[in-house]
Design a protein that fits this description.
With 225 residues, this protein is α/β, with parallel strands linked by helices. It has one domain. The protein contains eight helices and seven strands; from the N terminus they run αβββαβαβααββααα. It has a four-stranded mixed sheet with strand order 4-5-7-6, with helices on both faces. It has a three-stranded antiparallel sheet with strand order 1-2-3, with helices on one face. Strand 4, helix 3 and strand 5 form a beta-alpha-beta unit. The relative contact order is 0.12.
């Protein structure tokens, strides 16, 4: 898969400043390679605070700082970060964190450890809620926090129920885990970057069907099976 070029960060900043002039955004902090804004165009009483990062500065070290794995999970951070480097760098421009949890109940641990105190109240109002039926999600986009979340216990259950004959149990779990990561990160890029160029990322690519097709293609491209 051939990806579009990394977004031009100077052009992106110009777009942000135009929104500031319109009163749609307010700049909280800016430096050479990132700019944090309050976005007043989102629904609800609280503006959305998030950061745009220059995609050309996103490397393995940056990714390691933006992946949060629950302490009870034995996954190598470096393996996750190095694999994500194979993706389109525009994926991560507005990402706060990729969050890997056992279950939704553990989201509170992430919030306590990683969310600034002044943002906790507003973000709690938008945090994912537990489904009332038995079909619990394997991943979710926490839009207001710009977090892609993976629930590994649910991934294990789904993988065990849908073992692929040609892969076996472990490879089925591997595929289900990574396709979930790719799926939620794709939603994050398509839904959480208002300056994503439509000529490169047309709106229809944000549909659930298109995102599902993307994650399957991405898994095959990176892992070869």
């Amino acid at each position: 898969m051939k990806y579009p070029h990394a977004m031009n960060f100077q052009a992106l900043k110009r777009g942000i400043y135009e929104e500031v002039q319109k009163g749609n955004m307010e700049i909280v902090h800016a430096d050479a390679d990132s700019i944090t804004v309050l976005d007043f165009t989102k629904s609800g009483d609280d503006p959305k605070e998030f950061t745009f990062t220059n995609p050309k500065t996103i490397d393995v070290r940056w990714l390691r700082r933006h992946i949060w794995i629950h302490p009870s999970i034995s996954i190598l951070l470096d393996d996750i970060a190095s694999t994500l480097m194979e993706m389109d760098p525009n994926t991560f421009i507005t990402m706060r964190h990729l969050v890997i949890l056992p279950r939704l109940e553990n989201l509170q641990d992430y919030i306590q450890n990683m969310i600034p105190t002044k943002q906790v109240s507003s973000l709690l109002n938008t945090a994912p809620l537990k489904c009332r039926n038995k079909n619990q999600p394997i991943g979710q986009l926490w839009n207001h926090a710009n977090c892609a979340i993976v629930y590994l216990d649910n991934v294990k259950k789904v993988a065990a129920e849908t073992v692929h004959e040609n892969l076996g149990a472990w490879k089925s779990f591997h595929m289900c885990t990574w396709e979930t990561i790719f799926h939620e990160l794709r939603h994050l890029m398509m839904d959480c970057n208002p300056f994503l160029p439509e000529q490169d990322y047309p709106v229809h690519l944000a549909s659930e069907e298109a995102v599902e097709a993307f994650c399957e293609e991405e898994y095959e491209r990176i892992f070869g099976y």
